[in-house]
């Protein structure tokens, strides 16, 4: 029980030993960004990371949702990064600036994007990969923005 109570406390963003990660879930009706954190790993390959969802000063989960889904950018893929800007700005305000360069960002697109042609999917992803690093210093590369299968989607929280 006491361990669970600790999970509900505000995240200590002053702790230099914490690492952060961002996951954008681009669903069919909207997109959400989740901010996670974990303490530095002890180096033992048998120990898993203790990853938790970040909580703000009011002990609320750090998550933000926007509508509609990113698939709405199908005919204007050059605006996909503009579409995600509010989510990344929100995350940037919660993750300590000194940690931005080492904070991985994953953009996982699901059902709405799977319905688009591959050409339209690739155009949206290309805009994200090209433009987001110009504005945000998160650790982000082409392999971290993808359309995931329904099977993969089933295991993502």
Oligomer: single chain
**N-to-C series of helices and strands:** HEEEEHEHHEH
| Rg value | 16 Å
CATH level-3 fold name: Nucleotidyltransferase, domain 5
- The CATH class designation is Alpha Beta
Anisotropy-based shape: globular
Which superfamily, in CATH terms, is the homologous superfamily? Answer: ATPase, nucleotide binding domain
CATH architecture: 2-Layer Sandwich
Strand content: 15-25%
By DSSP (H or I, 4+ residues per run), the number of helices equals 5
First-residue to last-residue Cα separation: 22 Å
Number of domains: 1
Descriptive notes:
- There is one protein chain.
- The protein has 157 residues and is an alpha/beta fold.
- It has a single domain, classed as Nucleotidyltransferase, domain 5 (2-Layer Sandwich).
- The protein is 30% helix and 20% strand.
- Strands 1, 2, 3, 4, 5 and 6 form a six-stranded mixed sheet that branches.
- It is globular and about 45 Å long.
Identify the notable features of this structure and list them briefly:
157 residues; alpha/beta; Nucleotidyltransferase, domain 5; six-stranded mixed β-sheet; 5 helices; 20% strand
